[in-house]
């Protein structure tokens, strides 16, 4: 499929479990330059039982994972069909879906995103492009982050692109290559502690703002071995479960104090990356749910006064990842590179993703 304009859905479910992001995008290519328009867009929340099931999936048996994959594919198909019907959408070229990550262990050659079964095309009656990470891991890569190709093609006005979702990840150009990696956990930890207080998340960082920083815990978080690893590198919920939360639980302090301490930790790790690169008088685009955490953004600005931190419009904040997975799907349809080995560490650049036709 080689054409100039594409009418596609981008579908993304992140580790913060706030729901499935579904949006319609029009992507246009002109002499190698890409442009986009964001049209209808919704975040469809998960029912409570689905949140719990997806949280626990990291510990599922092989049989349980297979059943989860089938059930989640059906759920995702219904969400997509409802979205298409509610917005009277027609003429789609493809649904480009990330699925939901339940396992990410690239060092063991494992990454699993449920919802990427061939049945999704039959359920939606639209061609589907999905399962973007598996091939990269098979080629020796991290399978993540995959967003940087979109940062390069769609957001080149910014020296840095930072996403604050379940994890923070950053991308930038270095020596003619796009570089990207996961920095640290974000909403996978913050939401965990907000849930303890009966909230789905810490709105605006207001709970964290009312807490106190525990300097010993902060220093221990900053000293976690992951931060000293060279890139390419990436994180999964397994890391939060096995490393971050057990460390946090060693401290018998108020939940508000844990939230404030970890929020400062996030800001410090982001600042460390930019300080290490001696970045000044540059622009950094910040998207993802964490862009609404005003206390976190204030903390970052205090630590990075020489960096212009840009918070875009709501649709870009919320649906940038869905947009870029839509772009990855279109590039796959064109058999063009959509995964960069400079980012993931794979053997080569490649065009990744499964295509399911009707």
What is shown here, in short?
This protein is 40% helix and 24% strand. It is built from 13 helices and twelve strands.
Topology:
Elements: E1 5-13, E2 20-30, E3 33-44, H1 48-56, H2 62-86, E4 94-105, E5 110-114, H3 119-124, E6 128-130, H4 134-138, H5 148-154, E7 160-164, E8 167-174, E9 177-185, H6 187-196, H7 206-209, H8 215-222, H9 237-249, H10 255-276, E10 282-287, H11 294-303, E11 307-310, H12 314-333, H13 341-344, E12 354-356
Parallel strand pairs: 1-4, 4-6, 7-10, 10-11
Antiparallel strand pairs: 1-2, 2-3, 4-5, 6-12, 7-8, 8-9
Helix pairs in contact: 6-10, 8-10, 10-11
Could you list some keywords that capture this structure?
alpha/beta, 358 residues, seven-stranded mixed beta sheet
Can you offer a commentary on this structure?
The protein is α/β, with parallel strands linked by helices. It is 40% helix and 24% strand. It has 13 helices and 12 strands. It has helices at 48-56, 62-86, 119-124, 134-138, 148-154, 187-196, 206-209, 215-222, 237-249, 255-276, 294-303, 314-333, 341-344, and strands at 5-13, 20-30, 33-44, 94-105, 110-114, 128-130, 160-164, 167-174, 177-185, 282-287, 307-310, 354-356. The strands form 2 sheets. Strands 1, 2, 3, 4, 5, 6 and 12 form a 7-stranded mixed β-sheet that branches. The longest helix has 25 residues, at 62-86. The protein starts with a strand and ends with a strand.
